[in-house]
Amino acid sequence: MFTKSILAFLMSAFSTVLLAQPSFKAFAGAGVGIENRIGFKGINLQGGAEFYLNNHLTGITGIDLFLSSKVAKWGSAENEGAYFRQITPSLKLQYNTGSRPGTGFLMSGGLALRTGKTYHFESGDFHNGAYTNHRYVTEKIRGNGFMLGIGYGFPLSEKKHKKIEFTNQAFLMLNDQYTLSFKVCF
Questions:
Q1: What is the rounded end-to-end Cα distance, in angstroms, of the chain?
Q2: What is the dihedral of CA 68, 143, 31, 10, to 10 degrees?
Q3: I want to staple 58 with a disulfide (CB 3.0 to 4.6 A). Which of 94, 95, 121, 172 is the partner?
């Protein structure tokens, strides 16, 4: 029920923004991320649109794709076949201190839903400093919650700007995710 309520809120907010017809720009980005519960580190690809409500407030709808096949704390035997895939659609508000939308220091917060799948090392028999008889588990990732971010945006040209952002996707679950990303709005 909570997920349906969040989806209804996101759809309502998105349609309100579209009906208001503010100016908007598409963005694409890439970054690195870490998932905290298991420790997967990987790449994060992003895309979406920014809706400029005024010079200092921006509504952002986007989608993140997080991909990884390695946990740094494990050896090659424990990482064999491991993967982490997650898709996260989100809706957030961003405040900026610059004179143009999306520039200066950035602070953001919003809601996100996520879905994905992971296959990873769960346990094994520890003998003489190494694991044997490895056991792996496949888990579905489902969650919703809040995302908070900080960053800095600067103009590239009259119509384009670039952002560097750090985002914490704390999903009211154990495995929150941190992402450092670079975005170009065009």
A1: 37
A2: 150
A3: 94
